[in-house]
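Appendix B. Chain record.
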Amino acid sequence: MPRRNQLANPQARTAMEKFKYEVANEIGLYNQVQSIGWGNMTSRECGAVGGYMTKKMVELAQQQMANDPNLTPQLANSAG
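Structure tokens predicted for this chain:
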């Protein structure tokens, strides 16, 4: 079965991993991740990390779009 959650830019993998740990720390799950690892976390806990990551990325994109009016047409053209 193919993986669907591929990064658009493979070089971003390290940054996304770092971001995941930062978010886990912000929501109080960092110590648990360190002690039992991601594989032993519940789906709810991992989902909370992923959901918060998504929320923060959307907020960042909205800020960038608000600060750069030329960005929106570029994004529309790249959406294909």
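Further analysis of this model is presented in Appendix C.
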